[in-house]
Write the structure tokens for this entry.
Amino acid sequence: MDVGALSSGLLTGLREGVEAALIVAIICAYLARTGYRSQFGKVFAGAGSAIALSAVLGVLLSWTVGELPSPYEQLFEAFTLLAAAGVVTWMLFWMRRQARNVKGELQAAVDRALHQRSVTALAALAFVAVIREGIETSLFLVGQARSAEDGAIWVLFGALIGLVVAALLGVGFYHGSRRINLATFFRWTGVALVLIAAGLVSSAVHELIEIGVIPFGAMTLFDLSAVLPHEQDAGNFLGQFLRALFGYTATPELTTFAVWLAYLVVVLTLFLRPVKAGPTPAAGSPAPVRS
């Protein structure tokens, strides 16, 4: 078992899954409170469609990368890693800005859907709300799987566990039994995801250096192979764990290490800044909706 890859996938599945589960739970809780439990099926249909489409996208991306010849495989792999890191970075800052207002905005969107008197409006709302999380998760997991190499299956298995746990937490959110501080949860898992994204960026830079797209800084900055090797045949569990989770390498190139450090310092500094409070959207009174 590749514990590092498993942990990496589990963290991603849990973090992204909790966001999606929280969105669905807020929509369902608001519908229940306003007497529209009969509309739950539309919400679940929309969310389920988004999850299925995201899974298909992930499979297609993974399959496409493996079919390309060299050096196009490395180019596409680097692009996938950078896209995954970029998407998760954008997601972290979007969630950081919207965390205070997301509940009010969702309730306002539910009101608009109910006012439209459409049986598909709620399904569309749930689909749009979940598909963003699903696409981000697919991109991120493909990037992690490509980075983990032989541990790819454990990345996916860990993500599945994380998504199951997230679904259970979503049920807890709906029933009002919140046993964790969401602000603290998103803050610390966000820090962990920044570290993982930094590893994806450095892995992408390494691929580009290997095929000569980046023609400078290819010299090895330092060599920790004797102390903390990252190769699987070296028998060092900690090195393999750090490689799978954070993209660690015992022999980083100068450019790879510089990009990793710059990303980490800039993104962590911005992410950990205090959030300014914004106005909370008010939800209106829903109108009757046809079944």
